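For the sake of transparency, this paper describes our internal protein records without simplification. The record that follows is passed on verbatim for readers who wish to inspect the format:
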Amino acid sequence: MGKEHTVFLALGSNLGDKQKNMLTACEEIEERIGTIVSLSAFYITKPEGFVSENLF
């Protein structure tokens, strides 16, 4: 078996059902890459570096 690695990911979504998109992404990560040990709360933020009507 390969060596374990600790990885920190910052994910975002600004289209459709944002929370569902994020949970689906987490499911895909667990299926394809490995165990997710911890998740933060969901945060709503304005776009940075570009203009968009959609919040993240």
The radius of gyration is 14 Å. The longest helix spans residues 18-32. DSSP finds one helix and no strands in the chain.
